[in-house]
Amino acid sequence: MTHDDERLLRRAVELAASARADGNPPFGSLLAGPDGAVLAEERNTSLTDHDITAHPELKLARWAARELDPATAAATTMYTSCQPCGMCAGAIARSGLGRVVYALSGEQLDTLKPPGSGFPDVPSEGPALFDEARVPVEGYYR
Ligand SMILES: [Zn+2]
């Protein structure tokens, strides 16, 4: 991790504090190009927007996929105050972003929360109906 990485991570932590001050969960993130220039910043707004997906990492991954060409996305780094959750990690993987740098790990975050405050897994069933469900999918991926 370079001095520039730490500078940009500190900005992500500032955004996290700002999210909390606005009444939201304390998480912030930004995107920086290869020269360290900030391209976009976001804060968690899940409470004020009444949107469970309003994590800064997800908002930035969607922005990158929409606004950046693939080469620029691949040269872009996300700096985030905390390791992305599973939802955001999936979006980041699809966005084409080249790198993620985080401050708190998910494990470190858990030590700062009351016990049992995470989200339970939703019971799920499957696979089922393979012969029917494969019809709209077959031939799509080439
Ligand atoms: Zn997330």
Automatic annotation (TrEMBL):
Chain ranges of the CMP/dCMP-type deaminase domain: 3-120
InterPro entries: CMP_dCMP_dom, Cytidine_deaminase-like
Origin: domain of life: Bacteria
Record GO terms (molecular function): catalytic activity
Coiled coil residues, start to end: none
PANTHER family in the cross-refs: CYTOSINE DEAMINASE FAMILY MEMBER, TRNA(ADENINE(34)) DEAMINASE, CHLOROPLASTIC
Protein name: tRNA-specific adenosine deaminase
Origin species: Streptosporangium carneum
